[in-house]
């Protein structure tokens, strides 16, 4: 895809939904979600499709009608909603996921409270990670090009947001940039050495591009 400033409300119109799915985020959800999953802010529906293929019962909602149509086109049970109140009963789902959603909202806490209301067990979120300061190092994350971002979360600010809506929460940094850069700049023989060291945890990453969060409803464990 071309690079440059982008508005994610229109950027993905001509994109293959499955090309936008990050396997690591699918694993993050699959390891923690209950069987009934609400994909809130589903975009093109790729994550719902990927999770459905793994046996989860997914229902998807988005505020952009074109994206909902695209999600339905790949077999996802998807509907439009107004971005505020969810037309679902309390505890209607086991798990609600918000994949790269909260950073687009003026009031992410309001949507998290709705997610907590309809989730019987837990809520899972991912956002771009703005914890690190790279100073003058010329590193650019794709999310830095998104003109419709309203929130720029750090580990502490995302944890504070989740604590306001959940009995317990956890925030971790994910998607190490160090490993990605090593794959881009190291000669192939050194890439294999670096990979071997990473597998035995001898090269600890310092920089991460994403934050992953989980909020539990009450003290009930998931699955």
Q: What do these coordinates show?
A:
The protein has one domain (17-176, 208-216): Rossmann fold. Helices cover 29% and strands 22% of the residues. With 223 residues, it is of the alpha/beta class. It starts with 22 loop residues before the first helix and ends in a 7-residue tail after the last strand. Strands 3-2-1-4-5-7-6 form a seven-stranded mixed β-sheet, sandwiched between helices.
Strand line-up across the major sheet: 3-2-1-4-5-7-6
- Outline the low-pLDDT stretches: 181-186
User: What is the CATH class designation?
Assistant: Alpha Beta
Our measurement of the CA-to-CA distance between the termini, rounded to an integer number of angstroms, reads 38 Å
Q: Return the structural class.
A: alpha/beta
What would you say about this model in short?
With 223 residues, the chain is of the alpha/beta class.
List its salient traits.
alpha/beta, Rossmann fold, 29% helix, globular
């Amino acid at each position: 895809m071309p690079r440059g400033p982008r508005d994610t409300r229109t950027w993905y119109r001509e994109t293959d939904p499955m090309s936008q799915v990050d396997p690591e985020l699918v694993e993050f959800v699959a390891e923690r979600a209950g069987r009934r999953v609400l994909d809130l802010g589903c975009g093109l529906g790729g994550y719902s499709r990927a999770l459905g293929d793994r046996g989860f019962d997914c229902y998807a909602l988005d505020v952009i009608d074109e994206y909902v149509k695209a999600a339905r086109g790949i077999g996802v049970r998807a509907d439009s909603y107004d971005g505020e109140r969810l037309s679902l009963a309390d505890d209607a789902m086991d798990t609600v996921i918000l994949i790269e959603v909260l950073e687009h909202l003026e009031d992410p806490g309001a949507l998290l409270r709705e997610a907590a209301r309809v989730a019987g067990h837990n809520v899972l979120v991912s956002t771009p990670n703005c914890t690190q300061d790279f100073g003058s190092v010329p590193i650019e994350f794709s999310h830095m090009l998104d003109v419709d971002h309203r929130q720029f979360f750090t580990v502490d600010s995302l944890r504070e947001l989740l604590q306001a809506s959940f009995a317990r929460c956890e925030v971790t940094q994910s998607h190490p940039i160090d490993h990605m850069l090593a794959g881009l700049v190291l000669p192939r023989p050194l890439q294999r050495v670096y990979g071997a060291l990473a597998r035995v945890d001898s090269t600890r990453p310092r920089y991460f591009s994403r934050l992953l969060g989980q909020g539990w409803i009450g003290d009930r464990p998931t699955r």
